[in-house]
Structure to design on (698 residues):
DNA sequence: CTGAAAGCGCTAACAA
DNA sequence: TTGTTAGCGCTTTCAG
């Protein structure tokens, strides 16, 4: 009337891993005592606690997290999902996202949480909650909101604890943490104007909230300086550098005059600089260039790239914090982090 | 004599997530039936199976993975650990490692596995097995072996299912999957020699197994061509570009003559090209440069970088395969993957 | 201070 | 075909 599913002693799938009962037996105590000892309970005598801890350590025994979580009805892992846009071809490979991942890993590790990473097609963002639905993670961090605003709202409404790195947008019912994109765009363009640039190309994909805000800042800076906004100078390009190259080449070939480019990411800026060189435009003499993100490569570029620095290291901690709070049931307001203009040679003319 | 730890109905930590019992109640069947239905058992009538599946889907219910794993005594997540060397300052941020991560994510997802990512200090690599010890993961993938050969052997001896991306070295008791570093070094240097280079600088850290093998290939190529091996041309630099810059600058300032550089990574090669430019050496006219990895940036560099391509996409699948096999108890032999020289402008003189 | 026993959410004999 | 029930590895009341 039971189910000893281990009749043949040769059939066990993944034995060898010891469990609490094993070390209890070896130590000659009950599992309850081992549990208490390993969890540092004061109820157990210091001596046995010590003895059991050492035994466990020497045997490389660690409490089975799954069972513990099940019993305690909680868990210590958070899901980080990288939306992966087929079209934009922006995979995990953008250095900015990579560094974000690193930053999150650090913040999570600091707090004793594990990080479950997955990529999900940006068109099916509802899959992002899978790790939560299955109980594998206590919450979800989304890197970038892309075009999925509505789906994210839906997940949030369903009660999925959720924080997204991205822009703060109207009607958002989830917590976002992001850089101050409007200020970033403003700073970048204002700087260019101060360096004497008058016809500044903007390149990015304003259908994403972040780029849209950067564009807004850009336009504001033009307005502030009394400069006209020429639509011909606004180049649409997703984060894919191929598009950027084509768009910029076309612009140059069309004979349109411009003396600066503000790109929505450093990767884009790199493509811009290469394209300019291809067309014998020298940076910064002929065209000043400003990027966005301040990835490590930016300072080593040739010429070193002026860019808007996103507070990546800080962001990781901030995001994790927000998620943990929202798991605890708090209503966490969106947060906008200050960004900073880092001036290097690419914009000095 | 029991433990209803939910006396106050307002105290429950993270309720709201439904469980099998809930949907069983709603569907008016037993949990066993739900379980069977959701697992696609043939024992349950097609009608109820359908009904229950739809109910679950509409309620966003998903089987709790932790409980299922506990009961089934297995799990579907693998740990990917990125050794993180304080000294080499090589974090997750090297694009090569990033793309490796992406490749693993894809391969794992394809097979229905989750990916738990952690960084561990390369000096305390024994922590890499934590996810396995706690039962959180069924195996561990290590990206790079660095200097921790012995510790990896130890983990493997302990029975931790383990695959490392890296070089195949003598006395290794774990499975490694890696590019053919000797061949890579050979191809790179032979190519340089064919282009007429005679004094070729090698830059890398030969205390890591991978770089050591690339150096071996490099030396072999020199030997094959009857060229002398000048120790002065062998520059030690970890993957940190700062070291590379300093070392190369010194070499130049010392007046040592050279006409090519073979760098152990593309990131290093980038630093090399910048340093050369700083010293008014033109690439490839004055100095030909070959890198290693073929990260995305390489083809967009200025000039585009000749490099040894590592089969990243393929590697992810290969590694996952090896790990799964070794979890299944097979003895998986190390595997060396073919690499390929991609000739671009940086070496054409 | 320690042990016995119940049960976290699930699966699979076994019985009906 | 479906329900009943035991138990995966752990924590924690309650009794000793």
């Amino acid at each position: 009337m039971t189910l000893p599913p281990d009749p043949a002693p040769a059939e066990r799938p993944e034995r060898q891993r010891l469990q609490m009962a094993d070390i209890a037996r070896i130590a000659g105590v009950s599992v309850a005592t081992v549990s208490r000892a390993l969890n540092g309970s004061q109820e157990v005598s210091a001596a046995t606690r010590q003895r059991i801890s050492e035994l466990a350590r020497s045997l490389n025994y660690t409490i089975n997290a799954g069972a513990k979580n099940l019993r305690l009805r909680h868990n210590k892992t958070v899901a980080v999902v990288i939306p992966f846009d087929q079209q934009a071809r922006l995979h995990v490979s953008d250095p900015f996202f990579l560094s974000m991942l690193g930053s999150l890993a650090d913040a999570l590790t600091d707090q004793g949480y594990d990080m479950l990473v997955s990529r999900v097609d940006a068109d099916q963002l509802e899959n992002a909650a899978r790790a939560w639905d299955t109980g594998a993670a206590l919450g979800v961090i989304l890197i970038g909101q892309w075009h999925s605003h509505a789906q994210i709202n839906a997940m949030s409404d369903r009660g999925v604890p959720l924080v997204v790195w991205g822009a703060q947008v109207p009607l958002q019912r989830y917590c976002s943490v992001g850089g101050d994109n409007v200020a970033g765009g403003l700073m970048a363009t204002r700087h260019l104007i101060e360096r004497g640039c008058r016809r500044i190309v903007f390149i990015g994909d304003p259908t994403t909230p972040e780029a849209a805000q950067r564009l807004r800042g850009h336009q504001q800076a033009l307005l502030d300086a009394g400069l006209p906004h020429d639509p011909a100078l606004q180049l649409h390009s997703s984060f894919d550098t191929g598009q950027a190259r084509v768009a910029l080449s076309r612009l140059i070939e069309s004979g349109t005059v411009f003396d600066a480019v503000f790109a929505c990411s450093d990767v884009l800026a790199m493509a811009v600089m290469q394209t300019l060189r291809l067309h014998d435009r020298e940076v910064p003499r002929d065209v000043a260039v400003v990027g966005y993100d301040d990835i490590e490569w930016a300072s080593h570029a040739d010429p070193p790239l002026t860019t808007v620095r996103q507070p990546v290291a800080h962001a990781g901690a901030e995001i994790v914090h927000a998620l943990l709070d929202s798991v605890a049931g708090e209503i966490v307001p969106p947060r906008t982090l200050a960004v900073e203009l880092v001036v290097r040679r690419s914009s000095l003319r």
Observations:
- Chain A touches chain B through 55 residues (CB under 8 Å).
